[in-house]
Amino acid sequence: MVRIGSDWKHAAALLMRGALVALPTETVYGLAGRSDDPTVLKRIYAAKNRPGNNPLILHCSDLDMVQEVAHLDGEALLLAEAFWPGPLTMLLPRREGVLDEACAGLPRVAVRIPDSKLFRAVIAAVDVPLAAPSANMSGYVSPTRAEHVLAGMGNRVDHILDGGPCEAGIESTIVGWDANGVGEVYRLGALTLQDLESQTQYAWPLHRPDAHQPEAPGALPHHYAPHTPVCLELPQPGDAWVTWSARAAEWSGEPGIRHHRISSTGDLAEAARNLYAALIELDGSGVKRICVEAFPETGLGAALRERVQRAAARPHNSSAA
Ligand code: TXA
Ligand code: MG
To answer: How far lies 199's CA from each of 81, 202, 312, in Å?
Structure first.
């Protein structure tokens, strides 16, 4: 039986011995394991039912640890200094010694320093980067509270470190550089395009997948989805209506529609903090569909919009996770 605790030293001792421990980051809960042990990495993929070609993120406690696994210089170093610790993941040339299982054999490894003192203390104690995908079954919504991990994969982890709800509530932004050294965004996330642009003075394009290369499963359209259908339409009786704007918060309601506010004031940071928790809670509530108010196209809205679109793209009758 999995145990939930709040003692980070105990979590670190377990990780050192090769256990899988769910840990809070500022974005979402991660399923962590030591990145220098191929058996541990294989167990992470198996626990999540994650395809082996979808690489993991290595979480480091400081820049020195990053330099041990990746080449960090130029614009990447500039971004590291501006945004780490924080919700930014960078795809960097890997150093020798990084295991193929960590980066699915690719030439680049995904790295970030999370803005969670608890998690950084654990990494520093284990003294090797921790590989940590989001602590959900592959394809499902990422957990932002310890109880989500327990409900979603409690029998597949050795321990859960409860650090309370995650501050940001959606995953990190992932960036990389093309062969010409031009930066591109691989995944929108908690760090906005405007944040990136404020440092580099150019507009960051979204990465266009190479038609000849199979796309990482993490980038497939139906991802981050609850089992209940998600839609961007107005709700009908039997549906849930998830809103964030001040205008929608005042909606007086129609019979049979379950109104769930993730912000009442149009605060997108608050909405981001609450969106996944709302999807997970409503998923178990028996509503027919989860309808979500449209988010703006800029700032944090862009990442939230993308997540909901992916959740809505899920083939509704499929049991794929
Ligand atoms: O906020 C986050 O990033 C959370 C917390 C736990 O840190 N982690 C997270 O990990 O979202 P995960 O595994 O759920 O998503 C990582 C994404 C995947 O879509 C994977 O395909 C992509 O990062 N990725 C990792 N390494 C890559 C690489 N070398 N090239 C391209 N994509 C990569
Ligand atoms: Mg994930």
So the answer is: 10, 8, 33
In this structure, which ligand is nearest to the CA of 225? 2
- Domain region containing 80: 3-200
Whole-structure pTM value? 0.95
DSSP helix/strand/coil, 22: strand
Counting the structural domains of the chain, the total is 2
| CA of 247 relative to ligand 1 center, distance in Å | 35
Ligand 1 pocket test, pick from 134, 153, 175, 178 with the greatest ligand atom count within 8 Å of Cβ, gives 134
CA distance 99 to 85: 24
Mark whether 72 and 176 lie in a shared domain. Answer: yes
CATH code of the domain in which 191 resides: 3.90.870.10
- Residue 223: its pLDDT value, please? 74
Q: What separation in Å is there between the alpha carbon of 181 and the centre of ligand 2?
A: 27
271, 136: one domain: no
Q: Dump pLDDT digits (tens) for 45-97.
A: 999 999 999 999 999 999 999 999 999 999 999 999 999 999 999 999 999 99
